[in-house]
Amino acid sequence: MEEMEADYLVVQGSHVIARCGGGQAMMVFKYTDGSEELEEVDYIDCDDMFGGLDADREDTTFMMLGGLKAVLSGTLYNMILTCYQSKDASLSVKMLKNKSYADE
After folding, report:
1. What residues have CB less than 8 Å from 94, skipping those under 6 apart?
2. DSSP secondary structure string, the chain?
3. Distance from C-alpha of 6 to C-alpha of 67, rounded to nearest angstrom
């Protein structure tokens, strides 16, 4: 993770989500019991997700919180809260979700 410049990590079920490159992207990995390596399952471009906010600026705050669950239309989802806030008070909040499976 150091080589990828991961500055934030959250665990959600059997997945690890890492914010990489000073906020350029998020990568989603899956952990499998007994495996020594994480399997990359998704790549999220943060410019697409957050509308081009400059996450590298010193006056920008980022937060990521995992471990949340929600039932939407009868389906249980794992949820991750992501939030950017700049000193000019602009705030961008997003929820990432994926279906929760019994083995998680």
Report:
1. 49, 50, 81, 82, 83
2. -TTTT--EEEEETTEEEEEETTTTEEEEEE--TT-SSPEEEEEEEHHHHHTS--TTSTTEEEEEEEEEEEEETTEEEEEEEEEEEETT--EEEEEEEEE--TT-
3. 19
Please report the pLDDT score of residue 53 as a whole number: 53
Q: Name the amino acid, one letter, at 101.
A: Y
Residue 39: predicted pLDDT: 92
Q: Are 55 and 84 spatial neighbours (Cβ–Cβ below 8 Å)?
A: yes
- d(Cα 101, Cα 49) in Å, to the nearest integer? 25
- Which tens digit of pLDDT belongs to each residue from 42-56? 888 877 776 655 555
| pTM of model > 0.90 | no
